[in-house]
Write a structure and sequence with these properties.
Blueprint: E1 4-6, H1 8-16, E2 23-28, E3 34-40, E4 62-70, E5 76-82, E6 87-92, E7 95-99
Parallel strand pairs: 1-7
Antiparallel strand pairs: 2-3, 2-6, 3-4, 4-5, 6-7
Length: 100
C-alpha cells in the first residue's frame, strides 16, 4: 500500500481522533534519535491519581501508551510523551502516512 503524504496538523488530528485504536508512529526524540512505537490513547492502566509534576500540553507533548515498552515494574506497556511536531511516519487503520 502506498503511503499518503500529510502535514503535521493532520497527523495530530488523526491521532487524537483515533478513539483509542492502536496506531504506529515514528518520531524524533528530544536527543535526535528516532523512536518507533505501537501506541494508543485513552488507556487507564496503572493510573494512580497522583498526576505528573508538569503539564505535557504546555510543552506541546501528547501522552500515549506505548504497548511494547517495558514499565518500571517489568510489565508490558508504559506511558510515553510524544512530540507531535516531530512525527515522521504514522500508520492507522491500515493506512500509511508520511508526515511532512
Amino acid at each position: 500500500m502506498k503511503s499518503v503524504k500529510i502535514g503535521k496538523v493532520k497527523a495530530l488530528e488523526l491521532i487524537k481522533n483515533s478513539d483509542g485504536k492502536v496506531f504506529g508512529v515514528k518520531f524524533l526524540k528530544k536527543d535526535g534519535s528516532v523512536r518507533t512505537m505501537c501506541a494508543r490513547l485513552k488507556v487507564k492502566k496503572n493510573i494512580k491519581g497522583v498526576g505528573m509534576r508538569y503539564d505535557p500540553k504546555e510543552l506541546g507533548y501528547l501522552t500515549v501508551f506505548d504497548m511494547n515498552a517495558i514499565d518500571k515494574d517489568g510489565s508490558k506497556g508504559a506511558y510515553r510523551q510524544m512530540d507531535p511536531r516531530t512525527v515522521k511516519h504514522l500508520s492507522l487503520e491500515g493506512q500509511e502516512y508520511e508526515v511532512k
